[in-house]
Amino acid sequence: MGFTFTTMTLNLLLLMAMVATNILSLYHLSTTLQSPKSPKAPTAVPDQLLHQLHTIRATINHLTRLQNTNPTKKSSIPPDLLLYSHLAPIASSCHNHPELLHKYMTYTPFSLCPSDSDLAESLILRGCHPLPRRRCFSQTPQKPIPPNSLPHHPFPSSLPDNAVVWDHYTCKSFQCLNRQNPNLGFEPSLDASKFNSYKTDLDLPIHQLFQIAKAAKSVLRLGLDLGGGTGSFAAAMKLRNVTVVTTTMNVAAPNSEAVALRGLVPLHVPLQQRLPLFDGVVDLVRCGRAVNRWIPLPVMEFLLLDLDRVLRGGGYLWLDHFFSKGVDLEKVYAPLIGKLGYKKVKWAMGNKTDASGIKNGELFLTALLQKPVSR
Ligand SMILES: *[C@@H]1O[C@H](CO)[C@@H](O)[C@H](O)[C@H]1NC(C)=O
Ligand SMILES: *[C@@H]1O[C@H](CO)[C@@H](O)[C@H](O)[C@H]1NC(C)=O
User: Fold this and answer.
1) Strand 265-267 and strand 243-247: pairing?
2) In this structure, which ligand is nearest to the CA of 352?
3) Rounded to 5 degrees, what angle do the CA atoms 249, 252, 256 make?
4) What residues does each domain of the chain span?
5) Prediction pTM value
């Protein structure tokens, strides 16, 4: 009953939107017919009309989307940065969120942009990427950063707090973020040995990675770390003279700023969009724990194929602690990875022994795969 009623209401709204479109078109036709002699009026009206038509179209798209959502179906995806990753191979999703987009595009040109980095993040996570450009000045921190507080080493013991606009975070300092979770790299020096240790078969220390590449007469110079948080992998590779760019989102923490303050390159891109890199240009792609079973399968397929696109022939794809339900790893993910046709250099599985791992019967997979030199 409730659902039927909602459908009817939506149909009515759609009908009204269409009628409004037609009335506007008629209005446009009649005004242009009535005032053929005035040269200024016809240019003023179409702009306004176009704008209104756009708004109506965005509303129709939005309503159609609402109508297609089954309200009884509950999502099992955790409240995380992957929540909004849905299938959008092209950046067509901006129009699906007219309220957010409208809010984002409401500003005064050539003045300070609204303090809305959280809004930008919401839009990007919903697939609106790249964001539309604006003609306002982005917010900057209030106090200047003393030049000597910018670290040269990628594993400094602290990061300068006044390099960040903290408005939208509960924490107001890197120290606070580090107290909340010391594993996130906001005190970078704590991560200095992270990629050098070998505790279980799921680890792949960097020196081993270099040995493997060397034995295969392959060179590592350029890499991509996908969902790389505060950039500790890129930092460890920098010490080896390898350039790694890190994709990261500012979900609940200034990750991009932290990466940049370490002298590394943050790419502000979500997991569901085409990577801003050319075909066949990187020697190595690492997927950290952001890439796991929470990503809907069709998105995962597009993601893996896009990673294949940016890797050069003979380049390496490293899945670092990928996790999924044990049965899915065998039945779904291993066959999907197999479709890439890569050489399995390392393939290690292990039980995920934290609370959610035990509850869901999850396994970890760490795999190092080599792309064929030519296809
Ligand atoms: C990195 O490059 C510097 C300068 O060329 C060199 O001194 C250093 O030995 C290199 N480090 C590694 C690990 O190759
Ligand atoms: C996971 O643990 C079970 C026993 O609890 C064991 O039989 C199995 O071999 C383990 N799997 C892996 C991949 O280590």
Assistant:
1) parallel
2) 2
3) 35
4) 56-67+80-140, 155-370
5) 0.78
Ligand 1, atom 3, residue with closest C-alpha? 241
- Separation CA 19–CA 12 (nearest Å): 10
How far apart are the CA of 240 and the centre of ligand 1, in A? 7
The contacts of residue 290 (CB under 8 Å, 6+ apart) are 81, 82, 226, 227, 229, 271
Q: Which fold has domain 155-370?
A: Rossmann fold (3.40.50)
Q: Show the tokens assigned to 307.
A: 């990673």
- The mean pLDDT value of the chain amounts to 84
Q: Calculate how far, in angstroms, residue 219's C-alpha sits from the geometric centre of ligand 1.
A: 15
Q: To test the ligand 2 pocket, which listed residue (324, 327, 351) has its Cβ within 8 A of the most ligand atoms?
A: 351
| Lowest-pLDDT range of 38-47, 218-227, 241-250, 297-306 | 38-47
Would the pLDDT of 99 be above 60? Answer: yes
Token couple for 228: 């790389």
**Number of C-beta neighbours around residue 277 at 10 A:** 20
Centre of ligand 1 to C-alpha 283, Å, is 19
Q: How far is it, in rounded angstroms, from Cα 256 to Cα 245?
A: 11
Residues having CB within 6 Å of any atom of ligand 1: 240-241
Q: How far is the CA of 224 from the centre of ligand 1 (A)?
A: 20
Residue 228 to residues 51, 78, 112, 184, 234, Cα–Cα distance (Å): 40, 19, 30, 10, 8
Strands laid side by side in the 282-287 sheet: 265-267, 243-247, 222-226, 282-287, 311-325, 362-370, 343-351
Report d(CA 95, CA 242) in Å as an integer: 40
Distance CA 128, CA 126 (A): 6
